[in-house]
Specification:
single chain; about 210 residues; globular; mainly alpha
């Protein structure tokens, strides 16, 4: 398996700096859940001995990456304020979460974290803050009032994951991803004539890779 890391997907590299070790580890482990510490060290451009100095075991690294993912998740939802716009900050949280998709995917796809109390508690707190943004969108009338909270969350997570993965594989331009997620979340994938803005989003997406 190709263990190279696409820097464009990491939070650090978006600002022109080297991705952190934990961000690299998240991308490697999402691509290959069975990846070893040696694989992570190679992708990060460091020796295995250096990695072991920071994380003695694979479990230690896994927990550290989990906490890193929640740090980024908390930051993404914490910076979104209710601007009074029609979506209650929905687009803003989408824009903040797509770039950290690999870290979130690592967190969401690891059932072992269900048994790590400190991660579980932080997860629930971050999720509650994210749900608050979705509920604001609902209160503004952007989302149906009868949609249950669990569906608001699970549909949102799914779209964030697919968008982030599509950006990583080059199927979707980063600049087009937020609009496509927002349009799909609010209007579904029915005929374009019934979805405001759908045609333009599709046109942008099919014009090629970033």
């Amino acid at each position: 398996m190709d263990m190279s890391v696409r820097a464009a997907g990491s939070p650090s590299s978006r600002h022109g700096t080297k991705p952190s070790l934990l961000d690299v580890a998240a991308e490697v482990l999402v691509a290959d859940p069975s990846a070893s510490l040696a694989d992570v060290a190679e992708a990060a451009g460091i020796g295995r001995t250096t990695l072991h100095k920071h994380y003695a075991t694979r479990d230690d690294l896994m927990r550290a990456v989990g906490h890193r993912a929640i740090d980024l998740w908390e930051r993404a939802v914490g910076e979104v304020a209710d601007t009074g716009g029609p979506d209650g900050g929905l687009r803003a949280v989408i824009e903040a979460m797509i770039p950290i998709g690999p870290q979130l995917a690592f967190l969401w796809r690891n059932p072992a974290f269900d048994h790590v109390p400190d991660i579980g508690q932080r997860w629930l707190a971050a999720e509650a803050r994210g749900l608050a943004v979705l509920k604001r969108a609902q209160a503004h009338g952007a989302v149906g009032a009868d949609v249950p909270d669990w569906w608001l969350l699970q549909t949102f997570y799914s779209l964030i994951y697919v968008a982030a993965e599509s950006v990583r594989t080059g199927h979707l331009a980063p600049r087009d991803a937020p609009a496509l997620v927002l349009d799909t979340y609010l209007h579904g994938i029915g005929p374009a004539g019934h979805r405001p803005g759908a045609a333009s989003a599709q046109d942008r997406t099919t014009k090629g890779k970033p």
